[in-house]
Records
---
Amino acid sequence: MRCLAFVILAVALAACEGETRPYPYVLRISHETYDDYSCALLQTSGAFHLEFAHGGDVRVHEGTTNLEDVKKIQRILERPELSELSQRQIEEPIFSGRTEKLQLTTYRSDRWQDLFFQSIESEERFKESLDPLVEWLDGLRKLPHKELSEDEGKQNCLPPRKIVLKKREAVSFPDAVAPNPLGIKSALKLPPLVAATPAIPSATPLLRVLSVVVGGSDARQFCALIADNGRFRYENHLQKASKPVHSELFAGHLSLDELSRLRSLLDTPELANIQHHEPRGTAAVPVMGNLLNLSIARPDGVQNIVLSSGYGREFGTVYGGDGDIRSAAKLLEFLNHRLPEEKDGKLDNSARNECTALP
């Protein structure tokens, strides 16, 4: 299935015990558009495995490209804009104009590097390097090859067997690629909290918020993490149509009066009595409208609820959340007016962590 193409390679490392041959793989690449899907696995020898699909038609090719092509691909992969890039630096839009997904997985002497672009917009900054890689992938089907049946050859462009590096400790494979952190469906699941570093005193989370509002020509996403001692992190992302995302990050501390006000808003029956209901199967979230995920510390555990402006108007498999977003109107008003204040410290965008930890 296509979703398997976005699971990062379950590949081990490079040469068999007792051998000195170089690591045999250069790149795994997959590219998906609205109409087509293709992936390829390239070896240092030039041998390639290619799979591509259009509609229900799946083709599997195996062949060899020339060594000049291999060197060209290696030179592109060594460009600093790719070799020094991390997944966190890839900025995904809140909403995207056209469906496209591109994944590159390569081995960097001592680690796996996996880069996942989930939109045309996130690829834009790196077009000079990404476009030649996609063109190379598209051109593979024109090279001399042998064709395998789908049952015989389809393997999602994963290496056919396990390979082990000589005299190296075992290295963990990359984790599966996380969903788009700025995507609409991500509001259904808050990313997990990370442990505080020893230099930062730990604090118990009181409230975590993830809000997504998509209009006809703009969109906004913000998250907040507020501890029971008043410390907080706030990340706000705005996007105009056809424009990049503009982000602002703040850290601060609520006063005792503000913390008391927040607790009273969280304890209103309109919020406290809502119970969470999981969406059915692969239920879709209403795209045009507001979506709010609240994770609230209660005496008997954490209350996690999803509120939506589509609540009560569900049809088919559409998921409308656990309640009407208007139940949190006063809470949202408090958060929107209090958190992004100039008296609090503004953080650099490099500190962004999707509100998984306090600053």
---
Amino acid sequence: MAVRGFGEIAEQLRRATVLIGAHGGNGSGVIWSPDGVVVTNAHVARGSRVSVQLWDGRTLDATVRARDASRDLAVLHVEASHLPAALVADSSLVRAGELAMAIGNPFGFLGALTTGVIHGVGPIRGLGARSWMQAHVRLAPGNSGGPLADALGRVIGINTMVAGRLALAIPSNAVSDFLSADPADGWLGITVCPVQVPPTGSRAPTFGLVLLEVEPGSPAASASLLPGDILLGTEEKPFALLEDLSRALRGRGSRLLRLAFLRGDYSRVRRVTVALGSPRATQGSAAA
């Protein structure tokens, strides 16, 4: 049986990688299925619609089907068929020392390839308990959302950021878990950033998640949450990690989630009820 050369493997992966344009910036994405499903980072696909440029030069409008800022993943859909979808590997089988390659669009340069080795798989100190695919490959702005692949061209992660000299990617199994959920079930419609809330009155310093963006028409917007608000936790448990928000949003079907947050001078803890599980959430109690 003929064995494909590395050049051919890289070319197949390059054809499954797209250029994503949104809000004046560029990023990358991976064609996950031939019927138009594209996976990228949430920080790349901001807003409800973005553009996707394919390897053959076609530029298509894409709809953001699901977006989870806490996991930094987004699912897009383009009206096209028979697309060159990437092969996906089981990321739990990846071991340190294996060869790896990344393809993306750094600074808008299409289909740039970089190679290296896997450094490790697991949590990163200071980034919570989530697992990362860590690789010695060179990434630059525009690589975010593109594929990290093994030597056979199978996707093992979605490139997300650089920490020190390591490229960090979301493992492919975590992406598959995200895709298997109902997109509406865990969608809150916010972009957040971890912050340390200074002490106020009798309250000690607190971990929080400041809202950078609230998407119009989202459950968060319907519940009157605003950019600048700081989420402190649910009624049952305060947030201590970014992943705590993701866990709080997990579930199936229509349901209510009670959140504690700060606004204004941060002197008073407020509470709001958010309606989850509906793609057209139009009701939610106003922030108290």
---
Amino acid sequence: MAISGFGEIAEHLRRSTVLIRSGGRGSGSGVIWSSDGLLVTNAHVVHSSRPIVQLWDGREFEAVTQSRDSRRDLAQLRIEASDLPAATAADSSQVRPGELAIAIGNPMGFVGALATGVIHGVGPIRRLGSQSWVQADVRLAPGNSGGPLADARGRVVGINTMVAGRLALAIPSNAVQDFLSAGAADGWLGVTVHPALIPRVSSRGKTFGLVVLEVEPGSPAAQASLLPGDILLGLEENPFASVDDLSRALRGRAPRLLRFEFLRGDYSRVRRVTVQLGAHPARSSVAA
């Protein structure tokens, strides 16, 4: 069934969607949340404090990462621009299975690509914890992350985040509004990590760790002399068992010091480092 004005709805949604390049690791998408330069995207799309944002008309801006919550996978950016074509957010609690879903993003380098499908449901997904997701039968690809999932009227019902099976999963728009209302939720460490099990001779078994893949220049991690290849084991007397443990350790607004235990080199000795989170990282040194 044809939808009256669908072309105009899709075009407006395209103009409210941005391309984000951050940290030299490909690109993602974002949504213009307000006309004065407030943008929303996924936390995993933003790998630096000043990502580059490209608008639908080709203009580029250096954005400022105002807040980032890796637990909810959301980030708030700001660009110096006005009169932008902001998207309209819907009440995601009112979304029902069977409704039309529209996704806009920049997959595989195709700017402003559109995909359509239907909503399957809203709620938690088995094995993904208690977080609620807008689940839609929409085809997503790398580069769609952070872009809008909208209803038939072009109102944003979620932020596209990942694919589970054949379903696209989006963070509900109500969760986005809660995130924006709360302000900054995470301290910024400035690392990209990957979970791994590390063989340890001393413990005759394997230890969970987070392998540091990248360290953002000028970040608190860089100030503390952490390097790619280091393995974060946890905070002192509080070992990590998952990536969520690091997210929980970074949660909070206030500047503070965190004392990490980590491995380097032949991994035979546990080292320690103090990292200062906040606006003005202090000089830190790795213990010998």
---
Amino acid sequence: MRKVITAREAEELLRKGESAPADAILTPSARDLLTGRVKLTGQPGPRLAAAPAAGKKEPIVPDYEFKWTPGADPKTPAEIERFFNSPPIQALKQRICDMGRRIWAKNYVDGNGGNVTLRVGDNLVLCTPTLISKGFMTADDICLIDLDANQLAGTRKRTSEAKTHLAIMKAQPKAKACVHAHPPHATAFAVAGVVPPTCMIPEAEVFLGEIGYAKYETPGTPAVAEEVARVAVDHYSVLMENHGVIVWGKDVEDAYWKMENTDSYCQVIWIASQLNGGSLRSIGGDKLKDLIGLRKSLGMQDRREGLKECELCDNSDFRPGVICAVPARAEGESAGGGEKPDPQVEALVQQLTDQILKQLAAK
């Protein structure tokens, strides 16, 4: 099997002044490091390429979105197996593992928590397996499923929560990759039932947008898939009540970035809400309109595009701090929390008390 070179291994090659084997499969991040810097001849020793002449090449922004040919999905078991083990798919498997290590290293998952999916065809999706640490996956652990969650390839069983990812992909065609995790700050907002306010940080507005909130349903069930997909149609990042966060993007790293954006934003809002009496400064609706326009120019949709300026920064539902309240008592409930005492029992107790006091007084 051809060797897959990751970004970490590419950096080591550069440090040692070595080149990658000629038939190696490069992950996109590894290709970025090596292209134009190391000539992949398979010969030992450094192969530093000359800098491109001025004016000959325009600087680019790498695009990692996987583009398949519509209608060309493999059909037979043999075709599916060849596709699953092809160099481009092997590179994508490795990229999923790279993202798994990132969410694990950032403390966004513990134990076997979290999952990652990446769409690679009309009806084909790569996904992480169940019961595995996302920090220690290899390409051989990744599964291939269809949009109905039927497993097509892979030696390990797919995650049960893949159905939620697939529901998002069905409802939102732009969702090519999903990442689910439990980042501490964002999950705290989800447990508290608090949606972070908007109009606070320009970068968060451009690259993340408004954060959605999905009501709690049991993980892995059709109900949670339906609820999350409903919210995710208009939100790149969704807080899952009492559960965690799920994000989507055009490729697996794009989705991962939004997970970082979400947790970082929630952390900042949490800290800021403890300062200055909880009063947060807004950038204003007029400025937000500019940022929404910038999002649109970058190919990112925003459901707030048609709202009026006065509606764009409505954070009236965000009330930081602790709210203390005495819960209303149900009918028939006493102040102590129990049922009202039985009048006959009370009368008997009072009668016995009076008799005891009378006997004591006669002595």
